[in-house]
Specification:
alpha+beta, Ubiquitin-like (UB roll), Alpha-Beta Plaits, five-stranded mixed sheet, four-stranded antiparallel sheet, 7 helices, binds iron/sulfur cluster, binds FE2/S2 (inorganic) cluster
Length: 323
């Protein structure tokens, strides 16, 4: 007979929800649904073990620790790595302290970040851009020289713009956990830290393209798509193909009748659950490579969901699929 685990109650911004013990505040907030905008998360990624706890964008105020010990927590906590307790009460968007702290975190993340959104491929789907729009200052107080790096080709398909990197570690965990050998990491520490491949090794593993999708900013870019189009001029379509390496379920981003890029499918939190292989991502750019099933619903609250993305499927596509 299987044991039933008793759920515990947590209240976030006035919304009470029951969750399993061990759930983090961030995941509990994500489970609440439409009534609550969950805390932002730049480094946590639910499918990557060890992610979270690096960027501090997800800070929240715990105004009541638990039913047993109702004292508030003395400091703001990282919601991605703090587990809920029974009776806990959390202030997320209703906490002036948390909102003030997020402003500070955005300011720190932008200390060295170039203001190159107008030429960055990630513009329109960049989590840092959204975060800066929601919580950032219109000016910087930083007076020192920003870090400078040359752009680096890491492998056949990926270009690294280290100036844009926020050192979230997501790409490192992706490489560690999705591919069969460790490919790259963060060298040095503090303000000398940087993403680097080991001993000049290229990122050429067959699932390494997923680092582009998990990168919350435009630090890792797809060399087959760079500078081809702004993302808001493309039409994302759900598409499938026969693939022996991955699920073959992807999104093709079309410009007219051409497939400009292929990505994995992201959920409303911007996370990929089904990673795709390099072949699907970089080498299948013909309409005949894909069975296009319909417009991709983009539920993320960003400029990419503010346009025309659910227009009818072009008739040539239906013809091709039925041919
Ligand atoms: S390159 Fe992107 S995914 Fe990797 S650590 Fe930097 S910001 Fe994070
Ligand atoms: S998402 Fe929680 S610390 Fe980065």
């Amino acid at each position: 007979m299987s044991e039933t685990v008793e759920k515990i109650k947590v209240t976030i911004d006035g919304n009470t929800i029951e969750v399993l013990p061990g759930t983090t505040i961030l995941n509990a907030a994500r489970m609440v649904g439409e009534n609550l905008v969950p805390p932002p998360a730049m480094c946590y990624y639910s499918s990557l073990n060890g992610s979270g706890g690096k960027c501090r964008t997800c800070l929240v105020e715990v105004s009541k620790g638990s039913e047993k010990d109702p004292r508030p927590m003395p400091k703001l906590v990282a919601s991605c790595s703090t587990q809920v307790m029974d009776g806990m009460e959390v202030k997320n968007n209703t906490s002036d302290k948390a909102l003030e702290a997020r402003k500070g975190v955005v300011e720190f993340l932008l200390l060295n970040h170039p203001l190159d959104c107008p030429i960055c491929d990630q513009a329109g789907e960049c989590h840092l851009q959204d975060l800066a729009f929601e919580h950032g200052l219109a000016h910087t107080r930083y007076e020192f020289k920003r870090r400078e790096f040359d752009k680096v080709d890491i492998g056949e398909y990926i270009k690294l713009h280290m100036t844009r990197c926020i050192l979230c570690y997501r790409c490192v965990y992706t490489a560690n956990q999705l591919t069969n050998q460790r490919e790259h990491g963060i060298l040095n520490r503090g303000d000398a830290a940087e993403i680097s491949t080991f001993i000049e090794k290229n990122l050429d593993n067959e699932f390494i393209g997923n680092v582009i999708d998990v990168c919350p900013v435009g630090a890792l870019t797809d060399k087959t798509f760079r500078f081809k189009s702004r993302v808001w001029f493309t039409n994302p379509m759900d598409a499938t193909c026969e693939c022996s390496k991955c699920s073959g379920e992807a999104v093709v981003w079309m410009v007219g009748n051409d497939i400009a890029r292929v990505t994995a499918r992201k959920d409303k939190f911007g996370e990929v659950k089904n990673f795709i292989c390099n072949d699907c991502r970089f080498n299948k750019k013909e309409l005949t490579d894909w069975n296009i099933t319909g417009p991709r619903h983009i539920s993320r609250d960003s400029v990419i969901s503010a346009n025309h993305y659910e227009a009818p499927i072009p008739s040539h596509t239906i013809l091709l699929n039925n041919a």
